[in-house]
Amino acid sequence: MSVNQSAVRDLKNIKDFIRWTYSRFLKADLFYGHGTDNAWDEAVHLVLRSLKLPLDFERSMLDCALTTDEKKRILKLVHLRISKRQPLPYLLGEAWFMGLPFKVTHDTLIPRSPIMGLLENEFQPWLPYSPTTILDMCTGSGCLGIVASLVFEDAQVDITDISSSALEVAKENILFHQVEDRVNAIESDMFANLADKKYDLIICNPPYVDADDYNSAPREFHNEPQLALTSGDDGLDFTRNFLTKVAEHLTDNGICVYEVGNTEVALQENYPDVPFMWVELPAGGNGVFVLTKEQLSKFHF
């Protein structure tokens, strides 16, 4: 009898499947970094969400029995998570960002940007006014731009990506969160299709992973679109180009909030005279800087 046949026969309820999935994940030595950071939370998330149950599902209901079809669905996802190292959000078709669900596919990066913490604080103290025009470049699933539209309800938001497939997913998320009157999806290679548009706030989580980091990354990351992750040997190809153009697309008091992750060191070495304002991130981590229009205009990148 196969493992799956045995599980269908022996495991009865939600609690059984969470415990079994947890044990399987521990044995598989998976990498966690796409919404959870440990085997237990990943097991709970997989089982509950595969059953379309909320993550705060009433504990007293964990003894509910599962149908054979429900059991098989869970077992299939567990198998794919372990054998293919598929990140859980791709298996479920959804990721959570700032407490909100977003559709994701293999065409989009899985939302996890630490810029989330700055959105929660409305980019204070770097943005002393409420922006009326916002750009979310390299938007992927659209999560940063859509959340920005919910935080700044009077703003018009453009979200852009070079990937038409990613933008199709973003458009679905725009409709799901009912912000289609304030969020516009534009296919664009950086600023190419934005003409003379200017913004009070530009947010960008671009590809920035260098070649060494990408090649040594866990298999889970290699299931994400490489286009959204890598940018040349040192990870700075996109950033160098961006810095030459961004000032002309900011309003006079505008700011740019930009993520470079571990490539922070290489960026500072390349531009030692630029006064990058590195943000202390609420949830920890590094690699997000702020630059104003005034600061950007002083340098010839």
From TrEMBL:
Keywords: Methyltransferase, Ribonucleoprotein, Ribosomal protein, S-adenosyl-L-methionine, Transferase. This is 50S ribosomal protein L3 N(5)-glutamine methyltransferase. The keyword Acetylation does not apply. PROSITE patterns: N6_MTASE. One of its GO terms (biological process) is methylation. Residues 133-215 form the Methyltransferase small domain. The gene is prmB. GO terms for cellular component: ribosome. Its EC number is 2.1.1.298. It comes from the Bacteria. The keyword Oxidoreductase does not apply. GO terms for molecular function: methyltransferase activity. InterPro entries: DNA_methylase_N6_adenine_CS, HemK-like, Ribosome_uL3_MTase, SAM-dependent_MTases_sf, Small_mtfrase_dom.
